[in-house]
Amino acid sequence: MALSDREITRVALTIQNQLGAWRLRQYNRLSDEIARVTTSLSELQVVRSKLSHCSRRQWHAAAKSLVDQTQRILAYLPHSATDAKWALEGFRTDVPPLREIYEELKQTEAEFGDLKYCGETHDIAVATDPIELEGVFLGDFEVQLHVANICEARLQTALSIVALDPHPAASNNRVTHPHVNDEQLCAGDGRTAIQAALSGGRICDFFTLVRSVLTNYNQDSPFIPLSDWDGTVCSDCGYTMPDDDVHGRPAVLRGLH
Q1: What angle (nearest 5°) sits at the alpha carbon of residue 178, between those of residues 176 and 181?
Q2: Nearest CA among 216, 145, 147 for reference residue 177
Q3: What is the pLDDT of residues 211-251, one digit of tens each?
Q4: Closest to 9 (Cα-Cα) out of 145, 101, 89, 71
Q5: Are 87 and 33 in contact (CB under 8 A)?
Q6: b vs e for 209-222, b when ≥16 Cβ sit within 10 Å of the residue's Cβ?
Q7: Residues ≥6 apart with Cβ < 8 Å to 67
Q8: What's the Cα-to-Cα distance from 34 to each of 26, 41, 79, rounded to whole Å?
Q9: pTM for the full model?
């Protein structure tokens, strides 16, 4: 059932408010990083004054101690400056206007065929088609965006992946997808793009990028490899054996891997 214009507007307003709160957190983060830089510069100013005094008095031992202190401060300063620079990355995009977020939600609804909304929790969700990777059927998934958690700026609290027709790994029923453990997505290289889409209010891109992670298999970072997905788990050692391998062994040998 399609959402009404009123419901979509309500969701868009909630998302806009959360993105605004996220931006305030970014201001605070940038302020903290600038404070670290200015603290180092202030310390250098104090050291400079003391070093000049030691030079005039020819206090070599004290001057040597100040040189060592200067070295420590200068070693830390580039890291503080780099952190401040990274904090600036959060300001590449502005909080989008309400109309733009509204259109993003309408586009999401058109792209996925349905957009679910829970007014109590302010969650929105879309469903994928059934997914099969390298011959392993995993079923369909619901991608949930917890709008009320957007301001926390942490993908793991804003996103959940729920298996609608679970086909979990034989060795761990919490792993319903090679990249989903306990409803949490390991997005790998796609994490930065997904986070950027969310922070920019590009809701359709956000859901599309998450779906892309779910419909592609990264063999370098699965919770459980697809090659170990099915089979029988040995109760003694936890090793997962293919069913054909188990059934083809004499009972006395099935525990010997």
Answers
A1: 55
A2: 216
A3: 999 999 999 889 999 999 986 555 555 555 555 555 555 54
A4: 101
A5: yes
A6: bbbebbeebeeeeb
A7: 51
A8: 12, 11, 12
A9: 0.77
Q: pLDDT tens for residues 9-51?
A: 999 999 999 999 988 888 998 999 999 999 999 999 999 999 9
